[in-house]
């Protein structure tokens, strides 16, 4: 579908320096009037600005090197946005962090960063920008979640939980805004060939390589996502094979999922935990 639906818009993209966020910027550059790019790496944002200017010399590009883990920085950015007079027509909450490995071995700084970026920053940006959309009487919000948000994922526990929040929040917000001219769409991609996986995996941890049958090119993910926003669709899982798998997951009872988790643990050679017999003996007597 053509991106002409977004002609003349002002777009804000978080996590714009790489992966899905960068591809959103590339595909929207030919048609939008203004683009606000947010990411931590200033050098990548500067390079992206130059690239986008080649695509569309008339495009106004504003980029901010911003650490979304820092709420004070984010609040100052939102203040600047309000003072600048830039009215965001399309908000793409794309920035996200992951951490692949057992929760018991995780580092709190990384866990906390996921909570701040995946949940807090997304929610706060929406909170700050939504009122201006309400005043203008139109707008669109695209929140990037994940298929991991549809079920608990061992070794990806916190990330999956944060994405469950994004999906739920998006659906609820969409319901609230149905009487307005503001649309909300949640994008739930599966495996995509970006830097995300390599960054999420801990040193020394082996990551399972997803099948090519469910891996969707980043260009296709973004094309389908923009088409979904233009058609005011509530949710997108890119890729036919992945949509079929997600449908099966959603209709599978939780007790069966637990059995699958248990079988997977046994295949990996992990011993079965049995806390009940010895729990009382190990507990302090004053408890």
Q: What can be said about this structure in brief?
A:
The protein is of the alpha/beta class.
SSE layout:
Elements: E1 10-14, H1 19-28, E2 34-39, H2 42-55, E3 60-65, H3 71-84, E4 90-93, H4 108-136, E5 139-144, H5 157-176, E6 182-187, H6 196-200, H7 218-230, E7 235-236, H8 240-251, H9 254-267, H10 276-282
Helix pairs in contact: 1-7, 3-4, 4-5
What key attributes describe this structure?
287 residues; alpha/beta; 7 strands; 12% strand; 7-stranded parallel sheet
Describe the structure in your own words.
- The termini are far apart.
- The chain has helices at residues 19-28, 42-55, 71-84, 108-136, 157-176, 196-200, 218-230, 240-251, 254-267, 276-282, and strands at 10-14, 34-39, 60-65, 90-93, 139-144, 182-187, 235-236.
- The protein has a 7-stranded parallel beta sheet with strand order 3-2-1-4-5-6-7, with helices on both faces.
- The protein contains 10 helices and 7 strands.
- Helices cover 48% and strands 12% of the residues.
- Helix 5 (157-176) links the parallel strand 5 and strand 6.
- By secondary structure, it is α/β, with parallel strands linked by helices.
- The longest helix has 29 residues, at 108-136.
């Amino acid at each position: 579908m053509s991106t002409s639906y977004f002609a003349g818009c002002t777009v804000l993209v978080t996590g714009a320096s790489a992966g899905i966020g960068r591809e959103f910027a590339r595909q929207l550059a030919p048609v939008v009037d203004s683009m606000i790019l947010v990411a931590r790496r200033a050098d990548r944002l500067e390079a992206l600005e130059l690239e986008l200017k080649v695509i569309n010399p008339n495009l106004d590009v504003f980029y901010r090197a911003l650490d979304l883990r820092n709420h004070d920085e984010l609040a100052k950015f939102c203040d600047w946005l309000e003072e600048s007079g830039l009215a965001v027509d399309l908000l793409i909450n794309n920035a996200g962090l992951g951490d692949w490995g057992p929760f018991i071995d995780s580092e709190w700084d990384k866990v906390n960063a996921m909570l701040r970026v995946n949940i807090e920053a997304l929610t706060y940006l929406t909170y700050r920008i939504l009122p201006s959309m309400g005043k203008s009487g139109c707008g669109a919000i695209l929140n990037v979640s994940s298929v991991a948000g549809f079920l608990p994922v061992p070794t990806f526990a916190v990330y999956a939980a944060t994405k469950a929040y994004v999906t739920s929040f998006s659906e609820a917000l969409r319901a609230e805004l149905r009487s307005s001219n503001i649309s909300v769409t949640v994008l739930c991609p599966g495996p995509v060939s970006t830097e995300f996986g390599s960054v999420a995996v801990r040193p020394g941890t082996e990551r399972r390589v997803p099948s090519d049958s469910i891996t969707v090119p980043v260009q296709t993910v973004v094309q389908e996502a923009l088409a979904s926003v233009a058609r005011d669709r509530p949710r997108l899982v890119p890729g036919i094979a992945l949509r079929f798998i997600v449908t099966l997951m959603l209709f599978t009872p939780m007790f069966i999922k637990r059995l699958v988790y248990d079988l997977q643990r046994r295949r990996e050679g992990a011993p079965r935990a049995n806390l009940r017999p010895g729990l009382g003996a190990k507990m302090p007597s004053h408890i």
